[in-house]
Design brief:
mainly alpha, 115 residues, 73% helix, 2 domains, elongated
Amino acid sequence: MEDRARILEDRVEDLTRAIATTINEAEVPERPEIRSELRDFAITLLKESIVLPEATTGVAEGAGNAFNPLAMGIPLFFAGVVLFFLFPPVGMMLFVASVLMMVWGLVASMVTRGR
């Protein structure tokens, strides 16, 4: 596979050099801007001619459970610690919620990892 990729890269490089040489050698006294026009034309033609592979529509395995409460529990923990000193009831509530979310996230990670 790697050999085929290298062969394709070499071929594209050779074709690019040939196009660049042709554009650099282009001189038309009546049109001094011919090089920039040819360059833009080559770029436009290349962009329009390339057929990109279609994106896969299938969902990757494991992407269905993208939310893990552990990720939300960590910032809530720090916010709870700070707010505990400013306004203890709210800080304690955030602190407890964050601990519950982190435990939930750890359990969810352990259960899904076992599959």
